[in-house]
Amino acid sequence: MNVNSFDGIGTEDAADTRPILIVPYMWIGDFVRGHTVVRVLKKRWPNRPVDLLVTSLCAPLVDYMPGVRAGIVWDLPRSRLALAKQWGLASELRAQGYGTALVLPRTWKAAIAPTLARIPERVGFFGEARIGLINRMRWGEKALPRFIDKNAALALPSGAALPPEWPVPQLVVPSEEVSRWRQANGLGTGPAVAMAPGSVGASKRWTYYPGAARLLVERGLDVWVIGGPGEKALAQEIVSAAGDKARDLTGSDLRNGILAMAAAGVAISNDSGLMHIAAAIGTPTIGIFGPTSPYLWAPLNGLAATVLQTKSVLPCQPCQRTVCTMNDHRCMRDIDPSYVADVAHRLLVSQPSVR
């Protein structure tokens, strides 16, 4: 895969300087994948500033995304339209003078503020009867095979063919910041494996992280457990099983997870946002997949290893369900922790240097 592939994506008008707003999906992994959209836009219009609407949770990611001028941080509630907050956001957007808004989600709600802000070009796919809100309507979303195709197609001219490859998402974390983070957390300079045992949906969670962590520590490696507050109990279980060389680094600040993934020599992750962060940084990443399809949901960057159960092919895979309703979660239970630990160890020792 050519990580900087722009085949089929031309530069249109280098003199155009009107700012562009992207309204992305706000789940962490989807937000990271949205950086491909930024890269396509910057190829088409190298001198148009690109901003991202962003939640407080995802805001730290913007600091490491090349080509993004700024993040517009605005938290809208998920369960209601919140028109007063939409008006406030629209006022903020209007002040920026955007010429174009790309509205990636298909929801009516996602298009309200760009419309109230009177952004002249509002590009998005048809969905939820958004006629009038989206004035540069696109069609044919369901025919596009992958999530990245649906999003990045909006950054191309209407009707354009998809390129053979998309430029991959990038997160660039300065080495000096990584070093300061390790020192502030007392993590030393030894090789470390970052583990991300959480995910949205219980069926995507591999439950053998404690065993894999213990095996890695026995080989002299540090283990860092990364995740949000919801993974705190699981992190403590992993640390208890692995011993003194394992650290619980879970918390509410996503920047901590970004820096941990940048500092680690290898990352082991379920199909989750942290997997996409690690891959976009360039950390060798082992993705563990059970109910979801690596073709559809693995990072565009590629993974150092994609781990699936190998004892038998299950007819229910991929089910895409958040909770297993058949085969007693065999798609994840059949993945051996010793195998995952072996792959992680091989990746570490094969690198000319570790972070």
Automatic annotation (TrEMBL):
Catalytic activity: an L-alpha-D-Hep-(1->5)-[alpha-Kdo-(2->4)]-alpha-Kdo-(2->6)-lipid A + ADP-L-glycero-beta-D-manno-heptose = an L-alpha-D-Hep-(1->3)-L-alpha-D-Hep-(1->5)-[alpha-Kdo-(2->4)]-alpha-Kdo-(2->6)-lipid A + ADP + H(+)
Record-level Gene Ontology MF annotations: ADP-heptose-lipopolysaccharide heptosyltransferase activity
Gene Ontology CC entries for this record: cytosol
Enzyme Commission number(s) of this protein: 2.4.99.24
Class of the enzyme per the UniProt entry, highest EC level: transferase
Single biological process term from Gene Ontology: lipopolysaccharide core region biosynthetic process
Keyword terms, alphabetized: Glycosyltransferase, Transferase
PANTHER family membership: ADP-HEPTOSE--LPS HEPTOSYLTRANSFERASE 2, TETRAACYLDISACCHARIDE 4'-KINASE-RELATED
Protein name per UniProt: lipopolysaccharide heptosyltransferase II
UniProt lineage: Bacteria, Pseudomonadati, Pseudomonadota, Alphaproteobacteria, Hyphomicrobiales
Gene name in the database record: waaF
